[in-house]
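Reply to dn_fold:

You asked what the input looked like. This is it:
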Amino acid sequence: MALLFKPYQSTVKDKFGDKLFYPRVQIVGNVSTKQIAKEIAEYCSLTPGDVKNTIDNLVRVMATHLQNSNSVTLDGFGTFRIVMKANGKGVATQEDVTSGQARLKVHFQQAFTRHSNGTVGSYPLVDGVRCVKFNPSVDDTSAGNEETPAPDDEGTSD
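and this is what came back:
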């Protein structure tokens, strides 16, 4: 299987007045916690129920730490933290600032390695990804689709 993408057109014009096209990941399904637990159980001596319980407890413990102003790092996966996104309703003085001026959002920064010169070396979650252009008329997602290598991207987004 591969990471599917399809073209999308920007709603913002470039400096020449053109709305350019860019690749965007095409999500074709969702995997539940139950399915993840079942697959993890195949790699260890725990039952799918034990693994699901562990995942549920991981989420509960992470939420507790995040809600206590801690970031949470899962080695080889990434770091989670709560951020406040201002809703555009600023106030004139520091004393008037309230939490109601922003909404809370969990920010995820994927794990990465660095070379000795400080440049990004790799992102474990996406290393080796094969990208295939999405073609909804083809049943086998690898047949009749244009394959392109994933670019090395040093930037991340929320």
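Strands lie at 3-9, 21-25, 72-74, 78-86, 102-110, 113-114, 120-122, 130-133, 147-149.
Hope that clears it up.
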